[in-house]
From TrEMBL:
Residues 137-236 form the OmpR/PhoB-type domain. Keywords: DNA-binding, Transcription, Transcription regulation. It comes from Enterococcus haemoperoxidus ATCC BAA-382. This is OmpR/PhoB-type domain-containing protein. It holds the Pfam family Trans_reg_C. Signal peptide: none annotated. One of its GO terms (biological process) is phosphorelay signal transduction system. InterPro entries: OmpR/PhoB-type_DNA-bd, Sig_transdc_resp-reg_C-effctor, WH-like_DNA-bd_sf. The keyword Transcription regulation applies. Residues 137-236 bind DNA. PROSITE patterns: OMPR_PHOB. GO terms for molecular function: DNA binding.
């Protein structure tokens, strides 16, 4: 059974993430920031940090850095008022996921469940083949994605994939908003920055070509998910 730690720095939202998690998982524990810094490596499977008012950005960064140095624990950040800067910084420090005000509690639980189940299945596969590697390495093998701004490219599984400038800009914007559904208009404005009709078609066509380059199976994408009637979401 998975063990989940929940750090509530500030909670102004009416969405009850904690109790929704408890419906699915028995081992959900409320912990303090100081306890995170003292936890032993891999004592928890997931740590979820909630800061709805963006008052504790420094503390969150400190916890992410500490956890990445000391453990393989998954780290998710929840905030009602995520800034563009935070959406960029947290993943770079090592956060595995970010949920903004558009993420409902049941959606968050499903995203975390998917990540944990993916880890479990790959761990079982590794055991069957006589190999054990860290959770972090296994997760990176599945979902590792690193942007290379200087080359307009992306690194996936240690392979550098060349992108066009438009493809890179689209992926970069999705990466800055990882875990959040981004609308067609948002992507269009951040890639083309003009005002023309038929935006949805141009964005859909761009994502189609981007998926062909980065997805092993573009018909069942692992990274860029389609959000019906909304747009797209990057899952890493």
């Amino acid at each position: 059974m998975y063990k989940i730690g929940y750090v509530a720095l500030t909670t102004t939202t009416e969405k009850d993430y904690m109790n929704t998690l408890k419906v699915t998982y028995e081992n959900v524990h409320s912990i303090e920031h100081e306890q995170v810094m003292l936890k032993k490596s891999n004592e928890l499977d997931v740590i979820i940090i909630q800061d709805d008012d963006n008052q504790y950005v420094g503390n969150i960064c400190e916890m992410i850095i500490h956890l990445r140095k000391s453990s393989d624990t998954l780290v998710w950040i929840i905030s009602e008022h995520l800034t563009k800067a935070n959406r960029s910084v947290y993943p770079r420090l090592g956060a595995d996921g970010i949920a903004g005000n558009e993420c409902e509690p049941d959606e968050l639980v499903q995203l975390i469940t998917n990540a944990l189940n993916r880890y479990r299945s790959r761990l079982n596969f590794s055991k069957q083949n006589g190999k054990l590697v860290s959770r972090r390495n296994q997760l990176n093998t599945v979902v590792g994605l690193e942007l290379v701004p200087s080359n307009f490219s992306v690194m996936i599984d240690d392979n550098e994939i060349d992108l066009t400038k438009l493809e890179y800009l689209a992926l970069e914007y999705l990466h800055q908003n990882v875990g959040r559904a981004v609308s067609y208009d948002e992507i269009y404005q951040n890639v083309w920055k003009d005002d023309v009709a038929d935006r949805k078609y141009r964005v859909s066509n761009l994502i189609f070509h981007l998926r062909k380059k980065i997805e092993k199976n573009e018909k069942a994408p692992m990274y860029i998910k389609t959000v019906r009637s909304k747009g797209y979401m990057l899952v890493i």
